[in-house]
Each structure stands twice: as structure tokens, then as C-alpha cells.
Amino acid sequence: MPLRSAAKSSASPAALAVSGAPVGVKGRRDAIVGDAASPKALARLEGAIAELKALAVEPLLRQALSALHADDPKGACDWALKALGQDSRAGMAWYVLGVACETAGDFASSIKAYEAALALLDDPTEVANDLGRLAYRMGMKEIAEQLFRRHLEARPGSYEAANNLACAVRDLDRPAEAIEILRAAITARPQEPVLWNSLGTVVFDQGDLETAITFFDEALRLNPAFGQALHNRANAWVILGELDAALVDCEAAISAAGDEGERLMMKLARSTVQMARGRLGEGWDDYEARLAPRFAGVTRFLVERPAWTPAAPLAGKTLLLMGEQGLGDEVLFANIIPDVLRTLGPDGKLILAVEPRLVPLLQRSFPTAEVGGHITRAFEGQTLRAAPFIEDPSRIDLWAPLASPLRRFRRNIEDFPAGDRFLVPDPDRVRHWRRLLETAPAGLKVGLLWKSMKIEASRAHYFSPFELWAPVLKTPGVTFVSVQYGDCDEELAWAERTLGVSLWRPPGIDLKDDLDDVAALTAALDLTIGFANATSNIAAACGAPTWFISVPGAWTRLGTARMPWYPKARVFLPPGYGRWAETMDAVAAALAEIVCDSGTG
Q: Which ranges in 51-174 belong to alpha helices (H)?
């Protein structure tokens, strides 16, 4: 349903033409509105404090607000606590304490303070919004929806309230409802760029990038310095393979960033664009933004030892490298470990803290290193990572997250080694799987994986629907082996029912958790084909024949048509966004050629 004519005067024709965009497939960046410590919010608080009847509390809260204006959240906390010492039931004091704690990054205390204010204030509407934002930030989307809905009911004309509710509903996988909420808000306030931006994020998640860009364009027409919209449009350009346009938007977003946290997020986005363009040194330098304390998604590594820098000498040192990002990323970044070991030399020592499922594989691959599992916990809205197997941290000279040494050792494509592999599967298990594969139906033994365990909005752009694998699955002379972890019964049943193809399921292996055996299985196969996930990365890192199905703009190709991390791997690239059918035809043709050459067809 198109927007009503009332909206047409302030919105561009292009945006209005697609504002009734249908719901389709699924990717995006958050667009929650509000900042409890913004000048506007603090001015509102000042007005509320001026009306306080409790004279003993009022000057203390003014001091707290002055501290917030001076970017001193700790001082603001101290003044708010003094006010609560005068009157523990002063709802406004609890509210100011909540704002101060949130600004200081103490989310657990902030939530408690906001909850107290919610119960004590006569009009807790703004508290509900701030508490909703905090709950959203901490991943508590259902609670955030309830609070945003309460805020919208109290402020039915508030476009901020509608925007925030739509974002929570979007993230709870109800895109049609989110679109309706935003459509109504845009009808009333077509001049608000945040609404167009949020609408863009919803259709972006649904896979309609062209429409999403139209909405981001509209947001930027209304506010050319809107960093969130610039960032979101840059993400869309990357997926479409338009890297120059993405870089322009990233640079503009960094310049327009309203605070340090937003600037860091934009800088991290620029890092992957730079790497996708082949500018590795600049990309890895920008990639360090992920470690900054004020980066919203920062992982806090609980290591109290000096941090490694690219200029730090390593010879003879004891270095701790901590795995980071996802499981596949840990395998990818392990490409750097041989270089680090050579640089440490015979008198040095490498300690690796990795995902526990990777410990056996990496210990065998790097026998001179000490390898143990890290643990990760969510605590008070933060992600914490530690290496509990290290009993005496004082023996560590330097430490770094696993990707950071890439800044020193992989600044150019030529820095990537040409070796076949850097991980070593268990030879006994490889022999076991080769014997077992002989019991499978005759033909080339080809492992297949087609999805990630984490198919969320931002990742679904990178995977083809299983049905489009049909040309590959119908290749004669091939026995397909499912190396797909997770629940895949529905896809396997579809292949058998529709194509008459049964994928052989390897017995006695946990494809999700027994990664050492997965490495051996892929080494025993003739070939593994799939999108980039933990299994395909392990196969390629072990030197097993691996075909990656990539996408335009994928940064891990580092500006090439291959995967420099894995010299033996082959890459198949769609000719454009979402053109999976042509890609699968190319994979099927290449596979048929191998079957012919092997004489198994």
C-alpha cells in the first residue's frame, strides 16, 4: 500500500515509488534513535530538575548534569549518588544515575537505576525509552520491544518512538510489521531521515538492495551528513561489489560521525572495504578499531600483560595470541602463525588461546606452541574473553588478538605464502575416513556444505537457496557427502524427493563439534564445495581440495579472484548480486570436467 498523499510533499518521488516494497529475502545496521546524554536530552532533564520540590536534591542533580555536559560520567554518578543519599526515593536522581552509568559503560548499574526511576517517576515515559534502548543494546530485544511500545503508547506522535519500536520488531524477525510501523510514521513525518534509514534497513534485510539504497538515498537527501545512512548504504554497495562507492560513503560516514563509538564503527566498515579493494596495509590498520574500548561491539580480552604492536621485537619473546571473531575467522587468521613462530625463533614461545574445538587440530599443526581453549562470557552487556588454562600470566611478554599480527606480516598480497597448507589433520583418522568412504556409493567423493549455523540478516546475502544447487547435485559420477553441520534434514529430504539424489551422511562424527575429525574427513574427500564457513575454511587450511562459492565484495578475497589464505582453493564468483543460478551452472560444469578427467563418470 503506497503512502498517503500527505507524505508526498516532502519525500522524493523515487522513495515514494518504492515505499510499498514487498517483503522478500534477508542484512543491515542498527538505527535506534536516542541518546540519554545528548544535549537535547540533558536540556530536558534540566527542565525537569528545575521543577523539583526537593530543594536538597536539586543542586546535587544540577552538579551531576554539569558533569555530564563536561563528559565526566563518573563525576555525574558521584553527584547522583549524593542526591540519593539525601532522598533514596527521588525518581529523578535515579534517572540521572542511570544516564551517567550508561554513559560510563556500566550497563548493569544503569539498568537498575532506570528500573528504579521507572517505578518512582510520575511520568516515566522517557525512562521507558532509555531503558528500551539499553535493553536493545544488550541484545534483550523482546524487553526492548515492550518498553518501546509503552513509550509509543504514551507518545503516539513521536517518530523516535515509532522508529525504535520498528527496529526491535525488525530484529525479532517480523519485517512486515516493522514496515507498517515505519510507513505510518513516514506518512506523518516524511521529512525525518531516520525513518527512511530504518525502512532501508528492513528491506536490506529482506534482500532488496536496490530499494534499500533508494531509502538510504532519501535519508541522505534530507540529511547529507547522516552517518548511519552513509554506513548502511556503504554496506549495500559492498554486497553489490561497488567498492569505490562504498569507500566514498565510508569516508563520509567517518567525517559525519557524531561520537567516538560511531566513528569506530564506520572505521571498521572502511577496513573491510579497503581489504576488498586490495589495500591490505590500510585495511589492517583500520581493523584495529574493533579493539577500541568505545567500539560498541568490542570484545574485552582479560589479559593483563603488555599489548603487542607491529614495532615490537618478537625474537626470544613469549607471545600470547588470542582467537577472535567467529570460528571460521580463527582458522583464517591462523594463516599467520607460521610467520609468528619463525619470528619468535628457537628461544621464543608461542601460546595460542583458541576456540576449544580447535585445540587438537592446532596443537598438532604447531607442536612447538602451547595451545589451549579460551572461554567467552557475556557480562553486563559486554563480551569478555579469557584464557583460563594459563596459570602464570607473568611468563607472557606480549599478547595480541589473533588478527592483529596481520598488520605486520600481511600488508601486501605478495606476503601470503604459497604453501599447500598450514593445518595438519590426524593421519590415522584420514586413513579411517578413506576406508569408510570406500563403502559409500561409487563415484567421486565430494563434500557439500551450503549454509552457516548463523543465518541472520547480515549473513543471508552470502548463501544461495539450497534449491539452486540442483545442477551441481545432478552431476553424474559423483557421490555427494554431507559435511553440513546443524539441522539439514529438510534440505536432504528435498534433494532425494525432487532430484532423486541421496547425500551420503558420514557415520560416527559430530560435524559441528568434532572439528579435528572434520579436518580428517575433508582431507579424505576428493573435493569439498561450499560457501565460506568453519568447515570449508578448515578443509582449505588443511590443503584439501576446496571450492569456495564467494560473493561480490567479499573482503576475504583481498581484492583478488581467489583466496590468498589458501593457495590450493578455487573460487567461484557470481557475475552479480544474487545471480546464484549462473554460479551453480559454472560449478556443475567444472565438477563434470573433473569427473570426466578422473574416469569415474
A: 58-69, 73-86, 91-104, 107-120, 125-137, 141-154, 159-171
β-strand pairing of 318-322 with 349-354: parallel
Give Cα separations from 212 to 202, 217, 599 (angstroms). Answer: 8, 9, 49
- The mean pLDDT of the chain is 87
* Cα 326 to Cα 542: distance, rounded to the nearest angstrom: 18
β 382-386/375-379 pair status: antiparallel
Pick the more confident residue, 401 or 256: 401
CA distance 93 to 82: 9
| Beta carbons of 209 and 235 less than 8 angstroms apart | no
Instruction: Give the separation between CA 58 and CA 54, rounded to whole angstroms.
Output: 6
The residue extents of the domains of the chain are: 225-296, 299-411, 427-598
Encode pLDDT of 270-291 as tens digits. Answer: 999 999 999 999 999 999 999 9
Single-letter amino acid, residue 505: R
pLDDT tens column, 387-446:
999 999 999 999 999 999 999 999 999 999 988 899 999 999 999 999 999 999 999 999
What pLDDT score was predicted for residue 48? 56
Report the run of H or E that residue 339 belongs to, with start and end. Answer: helix 337-344
Contact 545, 338 (CB under 8 A): no
CATH superfamily of 427-598: Glycogen Phosphorylase B; (3.40.50.2000)
Residue keyed to cell 567467529? 326
Q: Residues 461-486, buried b or exposed e (16+ Cβ, 10 A)? A: bbbbebeebbbbbebebbbbbbbbbe
CB atoms within 10 A of CB 256: 20
Q: Is the pLDDT of residue 9 over 50?
A: no
Q: Output DSSP code: residue 418.
A: -
Residue 562's identity, in one-letter code, is R
* Interatomic CA distance for residues 219 and 162, integer angstroms: 16
